[in-house]
Design a protein that fits this description.
This protein is of the alpha/beta class and about 375 residues long. About 40% of the residues lie in helices and about 15% in strands. The protein has 2 domains: about 180 residues, 3-Layer(aba) Sandwich (D-Maltodextrin-Binding Protein, domain 2), CATH 3.40.190; about 140 residues, D-Maltodextrin-Binding Protein, domain 2 (3-Layer(aba) Sandwich). Strands 1, 2, 3, 4, 5, 6 and 14 form a 7-stranded mixed β-sheet that branches. Helix 3 packs across helix 12, helix 8 crosses helix 14 and helix 12 packs across helix 13.
Amino acid sequence: MNRIAYSFVALVVGLGLVIAACAPAPSAPPAAGAAGQAPAAATGGSLTEWERVVAAAKKEGEAMLYSSSGPAVRDPITKEIREKYGIALEWVAAPNVQLEERIMRERRAGLYNADVYFSGVSGVDLGEQKVLQSLDNALILPEVLDTKVWWGGKMLFIDEGHTWAGILASPTPPIFINTNMVKPEEVRSYKNFLEPKWKGKIVLFNPRTGGGLDWLYHASEVIVGRDFIVALAAQEPIITNDARQQVEWVAQGKYPVGLGGRRENKIEFVKLGAPIKLVLPIEGTSLSSGAGGVGFFDRPPHPNAAKVFINWALSREGGTLISRVIGGQSARLDVPTDFLEPESIRQEGGKYFNTMDKQNALKKQAFQEVAVQIFGHLMR
């Protein structure tokens, strides 16, 4: 290369270096604002840990959830977690009693398939069996750990070991009617169902299951008294093993009124425009998580994916979707309620019984035998 050419190249390179040195530094990419992806200012010292867990969860690729929820709840949650985190949710779905039996069979066989328990307070038994580990081992996001955002000033742990937490804390209207056949004022009290006109016209969900047992326990042992359910059995209610069928029968007018059942099925038919209305009894009702609770299995095959799901479920974003699809009010105070039925929202001065604790959960399990004795002759 001749001297002139060399000097020209050197000049160009030098100018390039000067321009590069004077150019402003590239701006940082905008920070994400969704749950679990907030900037460092919002997440404090947890950002690095959360990013590490999310990255490891994506490598695991999936999480196995054991749940009593139906597809109306499972499908939108699965879609959201796949799109947001690239994690596939696999579900083992069954009534709580069957789930617990399956889990214990697997453990006796040395199988550890489950990552997350996504269901109601019956998970206390799994905690007693040392199958669920403390949720303290999974909680990362500051917005989840912030006690100010939770109803009552604390997360709704069921026991001192923090093995299960309620995502929802919603009034549980045990009564639902076909509005073409029944006026709400006809069934404002539990005692109304003992009137002769309701004999053979009430449909119940199987008392062996969570949605069938919960309201019976609360009515019998907490709110009205056991004499009520003995008298109710004498009314010869129809009992079905299918929670969705229970609501469908009322929606179709096969039976005018139902007691108990699963909130998600009732909300599904309300959204479809069926003549279904939820009714709160004047004696009061329980606050419940329904199927909206979460536990962390010990020895999970996908521990990081499990942590991602648990933190998402307990965040404002996750809590909003879960509240919407189950149809119950969140235990978080910052989750909107404008999409809920009025009867599913805590009201100032309302008469509610909070039984989401270990003592009541264990009592409810023992009460199941009582319920089966009383209603057993009506079960198919």
